[in-house]
Amino acid sequence: MRIGAIAAAAKVGIVVLLAHGGAARAAEITVLSTPTLKSTMEKLGLQFERTSGHKLTLKFGTSAVLKRQIDAGEAFDLAILVPASTDALIKEGKIAAETRTDISRSAVGVAIRAGAPKPDTGSAEALKRTLLEAKSISYSGEGVSGKYFTGLLDRLGIAADVKPKLRPLPGGAVVEPVAKGEVDIAVITIANIIGVPGVEVAGLLPPDLQSYTVYTAGVAAGAKNADAAKALIALLMAPETTPSIIAAGMERVPPQPK
User: CA nearest 136: which of 107, 116, 154, 163?
Assistant: First the structure.
């Protein structure tokens, strides 16, 4: 579903959708989501349950892991993954193409232990120095940001020097070692840094090296609770929920030029 269409539906129809959901038989909706949206889904999920009367079951994991689970037969009503995984599931007939919706995106940044001196990440040269000086660096081993980061090391010409310091970790466990002092810095999307106790954002990657990870929702093809799942997408896209998206270190995905 195009962003403009779902945003318009959210703006004028969110109350109607949720009211309709509440009037119908209460449904149990299973949502498989990247952990990047964990805080957002937990917060807005409570709002959705109160308003609609439906019950949400939230399961979090990296897109690669969730894609494998779906391929293995995992039942779900709504999935929020990176675009490549969502698009693959559409091609496989497991997600309804017309429900595809870009919910948000997040830039890549550097996390440090709270209170530690902030390294410079404002330019390519500054970022290179920061990475070379770090004793250890964690990143998402299977995540989009992690794959971009390892490619970026090649572009910067420091892959061989930095490789011994790298600590690839599961997407939801990249930042905590920084808080514990087990790793110097983490390179991951800002949304995975904000809200983690004991860490803070040192800075974003410089604009000419920046990459955004997009998070895309889709309703399961043949979902038993498709209407309720679509109502949840509408809530996530509603203008009034944008502050929650921003507070979680994300932003709306700009409309694609026609």
Answer: 163
